[in-house]
Amino acid sequence: MVYDTFLNTVKEQMEQALGDGYSLTLRKVQKNNGLILDGLCIAKGNGTIAPSIYLNSCYEQYLNGTSMEEIIQKLLTAYYESSWPPILNKLVLSDYDSLRSHIAFRLINASSNQSLLKTMPHIPWMDLAIVFYLYIQENENGIMTAAISDHHMKTWGVTVHDLYHDSLLNTPRLFPPVISSMACILESLDPKHLQHQPAFPETPFYVLTNQNGINGAACILYKDVIKNFAEGMDRDILILPSSIHEVLLLPDDDPLSYDELGHLVTHINQTEVVAEDRLSNQVYLYSRKEDRITTVSFGPSAVC
Asked: Taking the domains of the chain in order of start, what are their residue ranges?
């Protein structure tokens, strides 16, 4: 079965399984760094919430021998587990005051997301962009969020600065920062996985992310996180953006030059990080004297 036929077959069988009262549509969904996924959107009744279930990996499972019946059952389970979180009963999606405490931000590469950024409120930061999303809930299946578009911002009657102000308060509370030494992280890994880890120079790397490990690179924007780390290390701090989920921190007394570190970041992006998770090819420096972060490398602007 070719891919387009598979998508339409899934849609038809899901419609039959769900029965009356549901509206299903197939649509292309643009994700980070230009990735396009095929989503099956399921709306119940006249509801405004229509979660997307991505079908690309389902086709791979089908080609590898998974039956259509098994795929449909997995999709139904995924839908029922995520279709209407209880928190949404308390939120009024057209009322910003109801949502204010759920607004959060993340960082993405600006050059590789130019098309996406045309439809989303954002704030430029270095070679990156701060974008916003609605945090809905977290359970054993992961975190449910919804990207905030220009349409949402217009509906709510707010500005991008309102979003930034509120998300700057919320994001550290919803996703507290965590800094761990690379040595401790490697020690915690199963030995059989160590051979697949990138080869870093013998330097004191630290990893900054959040407690969930998702979109943790945004922690570099949290108030005083980098500043306090620099004071504790008694050094200026180099920041290597290893992915959208975390950054590497190391004191600025490394034997490698900024250009060499930049080449290292670019190489790891191209060989170790999946395209959707890449953040930047640059190296940043936090100066204690100036209390600010600047770019100190000249890597390619796009990551994909």
From this structure: 3-84, 89-171, 177-295
